[in-house]
C-alpha cells in the first residue's frame, strides 16, 4: 500500500441541524442523519481512498456490530482493513455528533477499543512497505508511546518512508504527552489549540517553531476559518507561510482536519512540494466542510485538477 494510516478508528453518528436537545420524550425532526467511519486514522484512510490513493488502515475495533459496520464501510470505500484487529470484550469507539446550524459539533464519545491498541497489534512489515505512514491520534493510543515502536518509526524513516502525525483530543495532558513522537516523524499536523497545548506557546507561529525544534521537518497548524500555517525547517532557517481557507458555506466541521491530512498526504504522494501539498489539503478540507460527515463531498473528486 502507498499509505498506511495507523491509530484511532471511530464510528460517527451525525445529525443536523440540531439547535437544542428536546425535553422529555419530545421529538425533533431533522434534515439528515449519517453513519460514517471516522477518527484520525479511519477518517483519513477513507478520504485518501476517495482521492484515489491506495491505503491500508491499522488499528483496533471491538468484536461487535459497530466494528462490523466500521470495517464494512471502510472496505466499501476501498480501504484495506486487514490490519484492523478485533478486540473481544471491547466496544468499538463511537461518537454521537449533533451538528449545529453553524457547523459546530459538540460530541458524545466512547473511546472504546482504541485504548486497547498495542505495538503487538501492528505488523512492522506494513509500515516498512508504505510510502507514507500516517499516525492518527497518538495522543490517545497510549500503549504506542513505546520505545520499540518509536524505534520502528525511525527504521522506516531511514528507509525512505515519510511519517506524518495528527492528534485527536483537546485534553492538555494527552496532547503534551504526544510530544514524545516529534523526533520520530516528518510532518505533524495539529490544530491551533493542540499546537498551543503541545508547545506551551500562546501564538501559532511560536508554537510551530517550538514544535519544529523537537525534530520534524514540517509543522502544519490548521486554523479553522483562518486557514493554516505551514512551517518548515531548512539547514539554516525556519520558513513559514499562511494559507487562507476556502470561502465555503459550512455545513459540518467534522473531519476537516482529517481531510486536510488526506489532501496533504495525497499531495506528497503525487510529488508536490510541502506548500503545494498543504494547498491541496485546504481544498479537500473545504469540500468536506460543505457536507455532513468526515468524507462528505469527495466522491469523484479529481485531485489532479486542484
TrEMBL record:
| The keyword Plastid belongs to this UniProt entry's keyword annotation | no
Cite the InterPro entries for this sequence.
Answer: PfkB_dom, Ribo/fructo_kinase, Ribokinase-like
Sorted UniProt keywords: Kinase, Transferase
By its UniProt entry, which Pfam families does this protein fall under? PfkB
Question: Could you give a GO molecular-function term held by this entry?
Answer: kinase activity
Annotated coiled-coil segments of the chain = none
Q: Which domain of life is it from?
A: Bacteria
Q: What class of enzyme is it?
A: transferase
EC assignment: 2.7.1.-
Q: SUPFAM superfamilies of this UniProt entry?
A: Ribokinase-like (SSF53613)
Q: Where is the Carbohydrate kinase PfkB domain?
A: 14-294
Name of the molecule in the record: Carbohydrate kinase family protein
Task: Provide the species name.
Answer: Planomonospora corallina
Amino acid at each position: 500500500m502507498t499509505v498506511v494510516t495507523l491509530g484511532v478508528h471511530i464510528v460517527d453518528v451525525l445529525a443536523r441541524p440540531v439547535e437544542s436537545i428536546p425535553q422529555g420524550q419530545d421529538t425533533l425532526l431533522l434534515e439528515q442523519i449519517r453513519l460514517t467511519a471516522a477518527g484520525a486514522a479511519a477518517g483519513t484512510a477513507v478520504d485518501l481512498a476517495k482521492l484515489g490513493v491506495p491505503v491500508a488502515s491499522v488499528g483496533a475495533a471491538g468484536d461487535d456490530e459497530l466494528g462490523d459496520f466500521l470495517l464494512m464501510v471502510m472496505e466499501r470505500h476501498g480501504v484495506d482493513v486487514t490490519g484492523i484487529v478485533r478486540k473481544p470484550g471491547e466496544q468499538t469507539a463511537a461518537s454521537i455528533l449533533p451538528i449545529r446550524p453553524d457547523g459546530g459539533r459538540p460530541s458524545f464519545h466512547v473511546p472504546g477499543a482504541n485504548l486497547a491498541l498495542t505495538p503487538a497489534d501492528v505488523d512492522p512489515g506494513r509500515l516498512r512497505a508504505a510510502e507514507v505512514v500516517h499516525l492518527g491520534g497518538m495522543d490517545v493510543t497510549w500503549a504506542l508511546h513505546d520505545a520499540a515502536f518509536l524505534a520502528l518509526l525511525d527504521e522506516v524513516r531511514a528507509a525512505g518512508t515519510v511519517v506524518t502525525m495528527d492528534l485527536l483530543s483537546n485534553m492538555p495532558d494527552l496532547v503534551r504527552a504526544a510530544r514524545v513522537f516529534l523526533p520520530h516523524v516528518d510532518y505533524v499536523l495539529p490544530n491551533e489549540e493542540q499546537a498551543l497545548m503541545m508547545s506551551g506557546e500562546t501564538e501559532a507561529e511560536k508554537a510551530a517553531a517550538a514544535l519544529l525544534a523537537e525534530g520534524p521537518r514540517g509543522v502544519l497548524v490548521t486554523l479553522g476559518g483562518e486557514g493554516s500555517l505551514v512551517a518548515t525547517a531548512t539547514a539554516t532557517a525556519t520558513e513559514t507561510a499562511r494559507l487562507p481557507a476556502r470561502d465555503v458555506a459550512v455545513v459540518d466541521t467534522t473531519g476537516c482536519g482529517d481531510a486536510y491530512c488526506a489532501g496533504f498526504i495525497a499531495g506528497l504522494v503525487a510529488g508536490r512540494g510541502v506548500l503545494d501539498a498543504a494547498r491541496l489539503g485546504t481544498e479537500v478540507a473545504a469540500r468536506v466542510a460543505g457536507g455532513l460527515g468526515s468524507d462528505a463531498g469527495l466522491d469523484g473528486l479529481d485531485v489532479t485538477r486542484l
